[in-house]
Amino acid sequence: MNVGIVGAGIAGLGAAVALRRAGHNVEVFEKSSFKAEIGAAILLTPNANRILRRWGFDFDKARPVDFKQFRFVHAQNLSMLAREDFEGVEEQFGDRMCAYHRVDLHSGLRELAEKEGAKIRLGAEAVDVQPGDGVVTFQSGEKVQKDFWILADGCHCPFLPKIADEDIPTKKIGKSVYRWLAPFDKVLEHPDAAKLWADQAPGFCTFFQPTTGIFMVTYPCRAGTLLNCAVFHNTRPDETQKDVWNASTTHEKVLDALDGYHDAVKHIPMAVEQVKVYTVTQRPPSTRLYRGRMLCIGDTVHHMLPSHAQGGCSALEDATALEILFVADTIASDSSSLASRLDLYQQLRLPRSATTQILSSTNPQLTMDKVAEKTEEIRRFYGGHLVDWPKGSGPWSREIREFWYGYDVVGEAEEAMKYRESGRLPEGWRWFGGGREGEVVMV
Ligand SMILES: Cc1cc2nc3c(=O)[nH]c(=O)nc-3n(C[C@H](O)[C@H](O)[C@H](O)COP(=O)(O)OP(=O)(O)OC[C@H]3O[C@@H](n4cnc5c(N)ncnc54)[C@H](O)[C@@H]3O)c2cc1C
User: Fold this and answer.
1) Best exposed site among 54, 91, 218, 330 by fewest CB in 10 Å?
2) Which tens digits make up the pLDDT trace of 390-415?
3) Which of 32, 42, 219 to mutate to test the pocket of ligand 1 (most atoms within 8 A of CB)?
4) CATH code for 69-84+171-282?
């Protein structure tokens, strides 16, 4: 088939790699010129890194940092409040849990897509879509017709109502994030910061200030040369419009949020010239992912909170499902063949991505008891077995890791393909925790 992809983020580039590997002609249309550097890091967990490895991603070039622990530190006196050990995660789940500079991840994916033979057109902004005809109109006035379109234009996708039949607006949650990437050597110039990171395995170091409730997440990327920092705070009145990723803010506002923090932490934003602010948004799951010749993937259709680092990981899972479900010699380009395969895709992906989205809407300070309260919501999308979340465990606990990192999208999609003649996956398709075989309960 001739496939068009709108958007060259993680989802769009991943889909380009996947659909080339599946044997299709692929053209990606990206509105930006890729010049604006997105100065932030991103954590990918083993469910996503297994995918990158399958595609031959150049990890050495991207220089991600492996995560070995999560530390929850009192912001005022730097005492340790809690710690989660990630040792053994790589052995258990067959791949790394590591943080990338976003630019390094994006460049690596772009290289892979181009190596596979995908064409990428920059400065091409889609302004309208006709799902039934497979036509996308661009800002230039050009109309492009393809057999199959992937809409991967991110969380502000204006086309979703045409696909999902419902208007599911992206909403602000009242929280914003000050963010910056600090040179790690400058951070360590403060003697107490140096002590805090001395002889510590890499990973999260999250500071929490109990009197204000404001927390600051930090973790290293790019071979440990940079420290990614994010201060989650209540959105200030002058930040309400800043739902763009790259809005600038001032050091004074960051220091105001860090009121009561230890000097070693307040020193960290001073290590950079520019700090950014981003207003956090989320959207409930869409009940429909495709229409006509168009399919939504990634943040377009499952924009979620960053609390469990699964947005980008889910986008890569979506792409991999395409690679297996849309193998060229198993599908014709007529609309009824396409519709039945898209339906299979939706049966496979929607329960997983919607559940991930729902569970990600828990605040990082919430525990599994709160996660368990989401069961009813999850049941709208997923009919299989559910984990009995252990009371009191935190969001980076072993149980939650098993739920997310253990998911094998390749195996699941291959299994789903066995049902392509009937077009229906069996009732209660189970992938939660322990896979399809046997009782999938209580990780
Ligand atoms: C603060 C924060 C921290 C996060 N941390 C993590 C993490 O640690 N781990 C993780 O897995 N996820 C994380 N995420 C989520 C992750 O960043 C997203 O899920 C992921 O980037 C989504 O990728 P995407 O390709 O779907 O969308 P985007 O990255 O938004 O890409 C969309 C692309 O489409 C282009 N585009 C938009 N409109 C058009 C148009 N009309 N025509 C053509 N092109 C268009 C855009 O320019 C862009 O290149 C985090 C998110 C936030 C906000």
Assistant:
1) 91
2) 776 776 777 778 888 988 999 999 99
3) 42
4) 3.30.9.30
